[in-house]
Design brief:
Length: 372
């Protein structure tokens, strides 16, 4: 097939590649079970390092999961939220995934940081996240490995994650090296600042009067000393400074990326990721944030009501009127997820069932129910 044909269906290629690389676990294995308390991300209840968040609690329980449990094609674990009642047909699991994605992106855990462009409210990718280069402790590395497990599970099960990671993250996870252009995508002022230093034509006295430290801000804004030999930038060492600064920023996420890939390797054959672009990998893990109703309609089945009835027509008209954010909230209610799989095949038999329950009468006195 042509490159364009292959690129249009990364998941199809992934299925072909892994058919012989992985053996499916027993269909009689039902996965691990976990009880977690939900902090609801309020009042610092997630702990200083996010250890009490749902993400942190699940990360701590990973050692009790058998390797086979991570290779299941659908629900990998069963979750009971302490103090909550859930009609669980997989919904507890789905809700745990959605909750963890929220925690990762609202500073409840230390793993992700907003891009420098987002911090400065300028340039592209303001709403995207990077791996935190300052998160280096053994606990943080364990959390990054668990993040990798989640990414691998999303690929294997076809259940997309609602994560908005910047493109450079996906490129590195796919085994690609970053370029200067990638740095500019998330930090538009970084390279121009270096070029100002490199090309500045001020006299030596005037240049050195600026007393520029021989440091570079990392992606989280912390100043990093680049050399023990120099304390300040001079005309003589500025070329070396620019070289060291660029090299640092190109590799500042290496430890974190390595830990995430290590976690992914517990679920999927990581060497095969190099066959995909960063964008293709993102598509396999996250699907699309857009929620096309034609895809939802194509997997819809109906119980106790005809698909041509006025009630169903009204339902789809209301769904059409929803914004993408509102559709995402609807999915969270009925499915425990905020994104749809990319294709019908990725639903893997998980139909969207619309059912009229006769036990509630008069119906206007009751709220909708969902069995996720």
């Amino acid at each position: 097939s042509t490159r364009s044909e292959a690129s249009s269906s990364p998941r199809a290629r992934w299925g072909s590649l892994t058919e012989y690389a992985l053996k499916s676990p027993s269909l009689f294995f039902f996965g691990a079970a976990a009880q977690v308390k939900r902090s609801r991300s309020k009042g610092g209840l997630a702990g200083p390092d996010g250890t009490k968040s749902v993400f942190g609690q699940m990360c701590a329980k990973m050692s009790s999961f058998s390797p086979d449990s991570l290779l299941l094609p659908h629900r990998v674990w069963k979750v009971k939220f302490v103090g909550e009642s859930v009609d669980d047909c997989g919904g507890g699991y789905s809700e745990s995934i959605a909750e963890m994605c929220e925690e990762l992106q609202n500073a409840l855990t230390p793993l992700l940081i907003v891009t420098p462009n987002g911090r400065d409210e300028s340039g592209a990718n303001r709403d995207c996240f990077l791996l935190n280069p300052a998160a280096k402790s053994p606990l943080h590395m364990s959390m990054f490995r668990f993040l990798g497990v989640l990414l691998g599970i999303a690929i294997r099960t076809g259940s997309p994650l609602s994560l908005n990671l910047a493109e450079p993250v996906w490129k590195q996870l796919a085994g690609m090296n970053l370029t200067i252009a990638d740095l500019s995508e998330v930090d538009k002022d970084f390279i121009p600042g270096l070029m100002y230093i490199r090309d500045n034509e001020a006299p030596a006295e005037e240049f050195e009067a600026m007393t520029l430290p021989f440091t570079v801000p990392n992606a989280s804004g912390q100043d990093i000393q680049l050399s023990s030999k120099y304390s300040h930038i001079t005309l003589e060492n500025r070329a070396e400074y620019v070289r060291l600064a660029i090299n640092y920023r190109l590799h500042e996420f290496d430890e974190q990326v390595s830990a995430v890939r290590e976690g992914m390797a517990r679920v999927v054959p990581v060497p095969l990721l190099s066959l995909f672009t960063g964008y293709e990998l993102e598509t396999m893990v996250c699907g699309s944030p857009d929620i096309p109703l034609h895809l939802l309609k194509s997997v819809a089945t109906y119980k106790g009501v005809e698909p041509t009835s006025s009630l169903i027509q009204w339902f789809w008209e209301v769904m059409e009127s929803f914004s993408n954010t509102e559709r995402s909230l609807f999915l969270r209610f009925v499915w425990g997820r905020t994104r749809l799989p990319r294709t019908i095949a990725d639903f893997r038999g998980r139909d969207f069932v619309v059912q009229v329950l006769d036990k509630y009468n008069p119906p206007d006195h009751f709220l909708p129910e969902s069995y996720t």
